[in-house]
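Re: the request from the purification team.
They wanted to know what the chain is likely to look like in 3D before they choose a buffer screen. I agreed to run a prediction and write the result into the notebook, where they can find it.
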Amino acid sequence: MNIHEYQAKELYKKYGIPIPKGIPAMNVDEAAKAAETLIAETGSEVVVVKAQIHAGGRGKAGGVKVVKGTAAAREAAQDIYGKTLVTHQTGPEGKVVQRLFVEQGVAIEKEFYLALAIDRETRTIAVMASPEGGVNIEEVAEEHPEKIFKAYIDLATGVMPYQIRHLAYGLGLDKKGTKSFGRMLRKLTDLFVKEDCSIAEINPLILTGEGEVMALDAKVNFDSNAHFRHAEMWDALEDKSEVAATESEAQAAGLSYIQLDGNIGCLVNGAGLAMSTMDTIQYYGGQPANFLDVGGGATQESVTTAFKIILRSDSVKGIFVNIFGGIMKCDIIANGVVAATKELGLKVPLVVRLAGTNVEKGKEILANSGLNITPADTMADGAQLIVKLAGGK
């Protein structure tokens, strides 16, 4: 689950991580009022008006403006609020700005990059730091990998002094800056663990004129598997306008769903099989319209819901159901497919491949349904069939 920058900074503040003073705003008038308040509190007329969307690259898209005075802040807010920002993370459709964040201006000596993420291979927290801050870190990693410095934090030991020194040396920090960086890294790691994060990123991390480090930006993603531990807080932080309606509906139904740009809908049980199904469709010249995992405990109702969600996209020209019955029984899936097809009056081609528990019973249900359902024996056969039926190669 993603949250906005201003929400992430509230978390940073809670854990003692230095951040600039800032006030969130839900409209232009609130932004102007926030700028007036900050100017009065800090004694400086320089403020920053920031778009709040769940995507990076806002500055390049015109979503971050440094201005001087309340009138200029209002003008900047008017320019940003309601605008559709298109960045390298939003896709071509972009995202509409519905929230703003107004911050005090801060004198910047240097900019850096810092991020924590889960490294599943080593079962540690991977720390990535770079002296190239405030830019697209993916480009830095590709063009100048030598400028990415890493450390791996074992939860049994926490952040070690030698790791702080290694990263601080890579950033080019002096003794005072290294101490400040070490304090921040320990606090950020504490936040990462206690709040069940999957990512905690600061880009840019800055060095102030006083030689201290400060989080000028903040990004936090939570590991959704830990929702039960933070349900009340996470539900309060979630901005549903940033999530596609179909994804919210799928989540409520216990389905894992991500909308994509293709024309072949996929209904699969198991995340690994779902990924393989999408790869196989692409291998045979098709494009998946979604990732959809109905899980091991799917019911007839959840299968019908899955079909409804897939068909919300006008671009879907065919559906491939690929089920391996382990815990999930093929006859239950078959009944769900038949019920959904009848209820929705399905007008696009449907290919179904069943394997595993009660597979013969499931195939019999499909064969006797009287519906236009094309069976497939293997995933490869099913992928080729649906690509052909959907008008692909």
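For the purification team: The chain has three domains: 1-19+107-243, 21-105, 244-389.
Please add any questions underneath this entry.
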